[in-house]
Fold:
Amino acid sequence: MAGTEMSSREREAALAAAPWQDAGATGSLFRGTATSISDIWRRRELLSMLTRRELKSRYKDSALGFLWSLARPLTQLLIYYVVVGQFLHAARGIDNFAVYIFSGLTIYTLFSEIIQTGTGSIIANSGLVKKVYLPREIFPLATIGSALFNFFIQFLILVVAALVIGTLSFGTHLLFAVGALGIVLIYGAALALILSAVNVFLRDVQYIVEVVLLLLMWGSPIVYSLKAVSGFFPNWLLQIYIDNPVTLAVLGFQDAFWSPTGEGGSPSDLPLRMLLIGLLGLVLLFGAQRLFTRLSGNFAQEL
Amino acid sequence: MNSPVNVVQVNDVSKRFIVRKDNSIKERIVNFGRGARYREDFWALRNVDIEIAAGSTVGLIGPNGSGKSTLLKAIGGIIQPTTGSVQRRGRMAALLELGAGFHQDLTGRENVYLNASILGLSRKQTDMHFDDIVEFSGIEAFIDTQVKFYSSGMYVRLAFAVAVHVDPDLLLVDEVLAVGDEAFQRKCLDKIRSFQDEGRTIVLVTHSLNQVTDFCNRAIVLARGSVVFDGEPIDAVSVLRSGFEATYEADATGHGTFKQPAGERGKIARVRVLDGQGHEQRNFSTGDDLLVEVDVESATPLNKWAVGLHIDNPLGQLVTGATSKSLDAKFPTLDGAARVRFALPRANFGGGEYGVTVAMFGSDDQEIARATDAASFSIGQHARSWGPLFTDVSVGMTPID
Structure:
């Protein structure tokens, strides 16, 4: 061990100078969050390795490898385009329906993948949680990493498609995509933290999550237009519908890659709404992290 | 010498486990309000106070379910104590299960990096140690194979190799030293000895009491979540041995009250092998008279006591054994020291090495002291036959029509 060799007396002296640390995570409000964040930052290399492990192991022995991660969203695109768009005539009144669906689907898939794999992440890594001390936030966060990888592949396809079909133009409206991504990451992280922790104690959560994700998918204007909803809902319900973070993210992506003019009927104050919901999400994320720390003390014995 | 530097402080730690028998929403709703019946709690640790000094090797021993692994996990920060606190300093590595971070679908090489990272090494440091790790594990040829194709021995070798290259100040080890073949085990134990020389602190949970007396300079005996003994490993082992009997009794009678160790403490001071004239000797021939002399001591008067003798061959197989009870010998009350002699006249041992193990029993036949391989002797080889039993074997032949 070059560079680390030291005599027992040197080691003793170094230890005498070292500060005492509490074993495990601390519970105090703000200091606790700060130490958690610095802990995670110190283990960022591990975070990237866990992310890569997840990706590598998922398609390890398949011939086509990560190309399979595209199979599902492209099939969904095909189904929605043909069945919902053409057979059920949802495409009427929406130009470039394929780009419309795919922009909503891309950002929604990111959210759904973060939540779904994040919820099971602590249980999936129970071997590690029980045997080694790590900042446990790493496991849900690593699933965000692998979900982001899949997202970027879809995202590239979306950009190419938008470019070919001609709906992509350069301008400040592209910032909507950044805002949408931000909202999805904040809410995804917060919910993944909460749900992964609660799932340890109550395994029903992972099944509830599947159902709720299905609801959210149809509760956002991904395969139909917002106009169809606005004629149907009273105004107050419409506002709630729009302020759903998933809806906001979907609208943001559609404005960025499908139609910068808000042709789909997205509200003109979309930037303000995204900002406020984003800030609210940060508060939620903070609370989620505290709750996670609280519950994480009992993970090892519950698994 | 100045006062010792502590690396771990366990302050009045208690840990309560709640075992719920209903884990789904449906069951919880159905059972709501009658919660108490569907949960059971027990204290895995109760008011444990321990300080561990830098450079010491501490063995945690106790019967199953005594809380030793829980204590180790509390020190490692893997579980949070219900009350009390644990503080530590310096870099820690926990070897609670070898290869906990291994992923079946990744190759050995990828797993080395992943596991090292889990134990706190950066990529650069792992690069630096990588060759050492692979060499230590001795599985160079398979390093780029997925670990799911490894044999369990290879798996454990690689995991241990990673763990010992992490450079911890404090190493927590749970029952993982009994791994691999003999050569590799020796390598592991050598590594642990060099860790001790480098002033690293080791906390070890084990059921192998030999490991405790061989390695540790301090042993802590736990029973039902409390510390019942803390001190010299040899004393701890004898406390534990007498405690085992008490545990069996408690289990057998079915009520949960744990009987404290009876307090009988014996000591085997010396074991010698003598020839028929009473002179200490090591090399004998088949058919010589042998005497095994055992000096025993007791701090408190022992009314009923006995001494047992085992002679084993180098493979650990019993060649012959007896106790003073099986020989119908009754000894008077032991108060202080006494000398016991087993006589083996014209002993028919075959050529080879033999080890002598002696145990001491208190009232109720509890074992209160044991000296494993306390003495040894050697019998000269014969050209004509071999094996632990000597007979004057001969051979002849007659044709069969």
In short: Chain A touches chain B through 47 residues (CB under 8 Å).
